[in-house]
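Deliverable D5.2: sample structural annotation.
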Amino acid sequence: MPITKVTRNYQITLPAEIRKALGIREGELLEVELQGENIVIKRFKRERPTLKLGESITPEEIERAIEEGMEECMQ
């Protein structure tokens, strides 16, 4: 079982074998939750709206979606 260390900034590094096994890439968001005394780290699943072919969308709606996506990335 891989072991990692908490830095003075309270950061951890995911061991390479775990990153490779799950295909985790730099910049990817992970969700952290507490289950009793265990820390559980999961891939964060975003629910992004999708458009159907033939659906009309205004330029304002496109701008709003871009702004929301940018805000989400900055968190």
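Annotation notes: The chain has one domain: 16-74. The CA atoms of residues 53 and 72 lie 25 Å apart.
The annotation will be released with the project's public dataset once the embargo ends.
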